[in-house]
Write a structure and sequence with these properties.
Blueprint: H1 2-11, E1 38-44, E2 47-50, E3 55-64, E4 69-72, E5 77-80, E6 87-90, E7 95-99, E8 106-110, E9 124-128, E10 158-166, E11 170-173, E12 176-178, E13 181-184, E14 191-198, E15 205-208, E16 214-220, E17 227-230, E18 236-245, E19 257-259, E20 276-285, E21 303-308, E22 314-316, E23 319-321, E24 325-330, H2 332-339, E25 345-346, E26 349-351, E27 361-364, H3 375-385, E28 387-389
Parallel strand pairs: 1-3, 2-4, 3-5, 3-6, 4-7, 5-8, 6-9, 7-10, 8-10, 9-13, 10-14, 13-15, 14-16, 15-17, 16-18, 17-19, 18-20, 19-21, 20-22, 20-23, 21-24, 22-25, 23-26, 24-27, 26-28
Antiparallel strand pairs: 11-12
């Protein structure tokens, strides 16, 4: 049956799926589930369009192959099959154009019914591009085929805009995961804006090299890290919201930011991991609410920012609330990047630390390395251009209401002013707003996000 589908794709420019009615002259044969979803598996070749009038079910790894294009109409809903760990993979040289609207977002979600969905119900969305990384020849995690990365910083893998990714993220084994949205060597010609990843069973977002820029990212009630950067990622990110449920964390320790230049034992090859983040809010909420647990394992929370392994990640005008540690700088190479001003931080606020000692910045020694800097060194550096505050003084309002969080800070919040736009933040990509954190007076999440997808009937 699927051979018939694939041969048809090669024969025409655009494929619009139609239901099978056993008449050979009425279009291609399409397999549907009993509830009417079009089953998609194997490879997508040529130019294919998914229509908003249909629903689609991903089974296993579905590959948009090199030279092929998948277009998804605004308002389309795509489901991931749990048993086969349905995953959409855009291969290097392939393209996806998933451009929703605020009033008609594109939704990738669990195939389970409302009320029974959980973390890691399906794989997630993966895009591989031709932009530079520092791990040439490395395989993609989770058993995904193919290669990624190259020499084209302007590589274009398409568009993701007004897209929600819900209940995805599978850790097949330690350090071999599929995240909510995984980007391998994706170039700046790609457009990724207005994305919400919710209830992800691993990292909400992870970048492996590449230099794609993004604005307006939401990470909601994830399991492991929220924004994970590796292997030479050098993109710019502005306006991001993370709200965490304190009841769910990974065994590896869950962080707001986790950033590495290389894995343990690998050389520190260029390009160096050096993204610039601005206007991010990471909030760790207390709640008694739970959703079905697929047995991922109970873990703990660590740091708002864990910057390690020679990273040069820079953070501006952002706020991290409720983590045991606000900041951990890990390793002598990372500290050397601070001293050379390659790793920059300004306008950042940490609040509500729960570690007990009151420390909001610490050093550590990876793989037995003797540290040549101290916790006091880190604190003194942080205090030059950043702040520590009490959570109540931030006047964030009811942001911890997980089904309907208040995003806009209350009047009089110190976060509504004080932004710093120096150094790496003095770049044309960044909108030079006055506020710190993700929001001033404009709630850019309105209309397209969903903070209670467990109850949504798709």
């Amino acid at each position: 049956m699927m051979k018939t589908l694939f041969y048809y794709v090669l024969a025409v420019a655009v494929l619009t799926f139609t239901a099978c009615n056993n008449k050979k002259d009425e279009g291609p044969t399409v397999q549907k589930t009993p509830d009417g979803k079009i089953i998609v598996q194997g490879e997508i070749k040529g130019e294919v369009t998914w229509k908003s009038t249909e629903k689609y079910l991903l089974k296993g790894f579905v590959y948009v192959t090199e030279g092929s294009t998948l277009t998804i109409e605004p308002g389309t809903v795509i489901f991931g099959d749990k048993d086969s760990k349905g995953t959409l993979v855009v291969e290097k040289g392939g393209k996806i154009f998933a451009e929703g609207r605020a009033d008609a977002p594109i939704v990738f979600t669990s195939n389970l019914p409302a009320g029974s969905r959980g973390y890691g119900d399906w794989g997630g969305v993966v895009i591989a591009g031709n932009a530079p990384t520092n791990q040439v020849g490395a395989s993609m995690e989770g058993g995904i085929r193919g290669t990624f990365g190259g020499s084209d910083p302007n590589d274009n893998s398409g568009v993701l805009k007004y897209v929600r990714i819900e209940f995805a993220g599978i850790a097949f084994q330690p350090d071999k995961e599929i995240n909510g949205l995984t980007l391998y060597g994706v170039g700046r010609g790609t457009k990724i804006d207005y994305i919400q990843v919710s209830y992800c069973g691993d990292d909400s977002y992870e970048w492996f090299g590449g230099n794609v820029d993004s604005k307006y990212l939401v990470a909601f009630r994830g399991w492991d890290d929220e924004f994970d950067t590796d292997w030479g990622f050098t993109g710019k990110i502005q306006f991001g919201l993370s709200i965490r449920d304190r009841n769910f964390a990974d065994k590896s320790t869950s962080n707001g930011f986790e950033s590495d230049n290389f894995d343990p034992g690998s050389p520190g090859n260029p390009p160096f991991t050096a993204p610039v983040f601005a206007n991010i809010t990471c909030f760790l909420a207390d709640t008694a609410a739970v959703i079905p647990n697929p047995g991922l394992g109970s873990g703990s929370f660590g740091r708002g920012m864990h910057l390690r392994r020679n990273t040069r990640t820079s953070v501006f005008n952002s706020v991290f609330v409720g983590f045991p540690e606000g900041l951990r700088l890990d390793g002598n190479a990372t500290w050397a990047n601070v001293q050379s001003n390659e790793l920059q931080m300004a306008g950042v606020v940490v609040a509500g630390w729960t570690g007990g000692s009151g420390n909001y910045a610490r050093s550590a020694n990876p793989t037995g390395e003797t540290p040549n800097f101290t916790t006091t060194d880190v604190q003194n550096w942080y205090n030059l251009t950043n702040a520590r505050m009490n959570t109540a003084d931030l006047r964030l309002g009811n942001i911890g209401s997980l089904n309907n969080p208040q995003r806009i800070p209350n009047a009089g919040s110190p976060l509504l002013s004080g932004a710093v736009w120096t150094g790496k933040a003095n770049d044309a990509f960044f909108e030079k707003v006055n506020f710190r954190g993700a929001f001033g007076s404009n709630d850019w999440t309105q209309g397209w996000t969903n903070f209670n997808p467990q109850s949504t009937n798709y």
